Amino acid sequence: MDQIAIVGLDCRFPGAPDAHAYWELLMRSGDGIRNVPAQRWDAADFHSPTPAQGRANTTEGGFIDAPDAFDNEFFTISPREAAAMDPQQRLLLQCAWRAVEDAGIAPKHLAGTSTGVYVGIMGNEWAQLHLTDYDRVSAQVGSGNGYCMTANRVSYHLDLKGPSLAVDTACSSSLVAVHLAGNALLSGECDYAIAAGVNVALTPALSIFYNQAGLSAPDGRCKPFSAAADGIGRGEGVGAVVLRRLKDALADGQQVYAVIRGSAVNQDGRSNGITAPNRWSQQEVIGAAYRRAGIAPDQVDFTEGHGTGTVLGDMMEVSALGHHHAGRAARPMALGSVKGNFGHTEGAAGIAGLIKVALSLHHRIVPASRFAADENERLDLRGKGLRLLKAPLRLPRGTSVAGLSSFGMGGTNAHAVLESAPAARPTAAEDDRPRGIGHALYTLTAPSPQALRRNLHAQADALGARRAPVGPVGWTSHRVKSGHRHRFAISAPDTATLVQRLRAAAADPALCAALTGQAGTTPRTAFLFTGQGSQYPRMTAGLYQDAPLYRHFLDEADGALRPHTGRSVRDLVLSGEESVHLTRWAQPALFAVGYALGRTLQELGVQPSLLLGHSVGEYAAACLAGVFPLDAAARLITARGALMQQLPDGGGMLAVLAGRDELAAHLQDEPEVTVAVVNGPRATVLSGTTTALNRVAQSCERDHLRTRMLRVSHAFHSPLMDPMLDDFAEIAREVGGAVPQLPLYSTLHGRLLDGEAMDADYWVAHIRRPVLFADAFTAAGAAAPSHTVEVGPSPLLSSLTRRLPPPAGGIRPVATAPVRAADSGGQDLADTVAELYRGGLDPRWDTLYPARDQRPYRLGPYAFNDEHRYWTQGPARRPGAAPPAAPAAPAPPAPSAQDSAVLVLERPAPTDPVTETALTALAQVGGYEVSELGPLLRLYEDLGFDSVMVMELKKRLEERLPALAALTVQDLLPRLASVGDLVAFLREYCAPAPDSTQERTA
């Protein structure tokens, strides 16, 4: 039989708010039982130590904390709808989300898929409390209740298109749901399935029933298979697992907690009572599960029993197991039940047991069972080949097998056989492309700044609590913690540094904001290639050491240059030789660095929207733009540097803090000096003979113009270059040059090249004529780049661009550089990718990490907001008892992600009746405060409106604005994009018709 992998899970049980805490509770044999919370019912009202009619015999049980807490904004559910929803729906939504994340999947990536949802549930007490209060029944109350809606909510909000159903077989509900989900996967009906169970005890009804039936433990505790067993103790909770066909999970390299080898479901039929357990049916369902799993009973290492702790129930279950295992007296099978820790969770009992078994197989240790020390001798466990676990059981190496039973009160029985996950297979990269930049890039998204900081705290705590490899952590973060509006990114060389940086960002809103961008934008990136003068010994040596990706492309450039240079430019650069400043080496070295950095960025998914190179930097820009191949570019740049190096000495260059026109008077009588570079309105470089430049410098200083002689070997971009032009032109004609395939802003012309080839004539003129950097960058501003990336060994151009006037609109592009200093390594490159990610880029994550780091790591679960509380019904009381307090209104939600300070400032003041009516109606229908409604908030995406709410909105608007009576829903729908759109439309629609006399006068 094909097998099913458990690839993700999440849960919340008494004393255990998440799966990690659940495992800790099990390992320490913790007790999750406490007094009935006052929020549920007044235990004293319903308590009687004897089985009095209408009374319970206990005031204790297993209750989770804060079942009324719900992050409705995360799921875009209005406060009014959230208040009407069964808490079981709310708990399942959050649990399912976290389970999918735990499976290494961003939940939004499942949208539109055939993923199935199967929910075990047997309690519907919220409906009993609310649907019988007829005056308060609303459309929201209708959709907020019902078994089917527990599954349908998950499918709806995660946009899942597979089967979606709730299963009620009483106490076996959630294990039956797992069985159905597994069969759907095996039949090909879906490729993923979420199987879950949930139970929230809202009334004492079942507690009374258990007491009247003689099934209730007076202390509220299940004591499975113990001599002290005296009945059921109620428990509650929620759990979900993500299931997939094992072969598919292994093929995708997913982590697997455990494998479901087979499962079976049957019914007692007509036996000794509809609520009584049936030994024969139980032993048959166990045997059927063994057969389907293809295992013999003696292969089972342990079984998680149903274990309610009732005398009859324990006896029937042990007898059924003994039928299969009685021959194991020498090596009895271990038996336990999680019900001893926090009670019988009814509809969630099966999923509670399944998660315990999966975690036990995953950790290769089975927790001891509470109350096992005093086993019930009348059960004759040893004679039936069974034993209770009085201490944790370490599983031997190799494959371990476990069983799991769940029996329904109405006679529906389920059993599953699980085994430990197979050894993880190493996942090799799909090809032999170079990968990795030496630093991990951690990303996290959230729907609001507050949610982002909350989850930064949670992730820092989770990573800080265990030894986590930073590479897999970063690689997984992009795959799992994605899809929300606010995008956070930060780099780190190791996990300790990452945790430190996450905590710092979480604690400082300003820092967090600086490291956060918003989805929905697409960065327009300008690559700026640095020119001569930026070189230095060992430039990019740190990056070469850290980043295999950069190392590959620098080696590639070096291989193309070597036939023309006669030696390795790469080795010259990395060895720290001062000769890198010589023109013959500086120019090919800068080309190699620029090319390698540019190709590295492209391979990471950073595709330039435009390119601009400063003087010699234009060669790498042209190569990346497709003007000529790497070999041709290498030949041309090498010839350029060598021919310039052969020119006689005596030339130099002078930087002057003055504009080109301002220098005209100083150059009027100096024919040997010319303008070589225009870097800005008051940043000009002159070139010529050293003697003439000294005279110009003295002239400028007399006019209080600051000057600086540059460290260069020759007078570039001046007539002193003329002697080498013919030889260079001959090589340039052989090399050729095409029209750029990407937008390239020429510093020769100071503008965009429009279908013009960068041929021999271009490159000859490029040597002789001035560099119009300021003009070219200003022209590029019209293309509105959002980011500039300086592609070179020093961020010199970024400094120049800050001194240029801002582009039209006044918004300067964000400047970043993958190499920022002589000691730059992988971090600066990672920070550049992080900056672009925050700006909307989706990098090629698989290229960012070496193959060894491309493996999943289970990150901490999403931390939902627990400040919003929804509990609209008072606690249950006995007839004749003191009247309940007035139903508590839901706490007003905190400002949402969409209701930011900017939106608050732009909120329309309800000074006119139409605006006041619109905002009031929106607030009433959604359960918001009027003060929360800003004009940019979207009715569907931000406020959670749906078609039912729109109908109610129209009705409320008509009550106060009779002019809307003729308005149809079809007329209204197109006007509901945002609060501001609706208000503007209503103002226009309700405006009085202009007076005809006034029209004629006008």
From TrEMBL:
SUPFAM superfamilies linked: ACP-like (SSF47336), FabD/lysophospholipase-like (SSF52151), Probable ACP-binding domain of malonyl-CoA ACP transacylase (SSF55048), Thiolase-like (SSF53901)
SMART domains in alphabetical order:
PKS_AT (SM00827), PKS_KS (SM00825)
The protein's matches in InterPro entries, at most eight in alphabetical order, are given as: Ac_transferase_dom_sf (IPR001227), ACP-like_sf (IPR036736), Acyl_transferase_dom (IPR014043), Acyl_Trfase/lysoPLipase (IPR016035), Ketoacyl_synth_AS (IPR018201), Ketoacyl_synth_C (IPR014031), Ketoacyl_synth_N (IPR014030), Malonyl_transacylase_ACP-bd (IPR016036)
Q: Where do the segments described as Disordered lie?
A: 872-899
| Molecular function as annotated in GO | 3-oxoacyl-[acyl-carrier-protein] synthase activity; fatty acid synthase activity; phosphopantetheine binding
GO aspect biological process, one term: fatty acid biosynthetic process
Bias (Pro residues) ranges: 881-895
Keyword Methyltransferase carried by entry: no
In this chain the Ketosynthase family 3 (KS3) domain maps to 1-420
Residues in Carrier domain copies = 909-990
What does UniProt give as GO cellular component? cytoplasm; plasma membrane
Name this polypeptide is given: Acyl transferase domain-containing protein
Its source organism is Streptomyces indicus
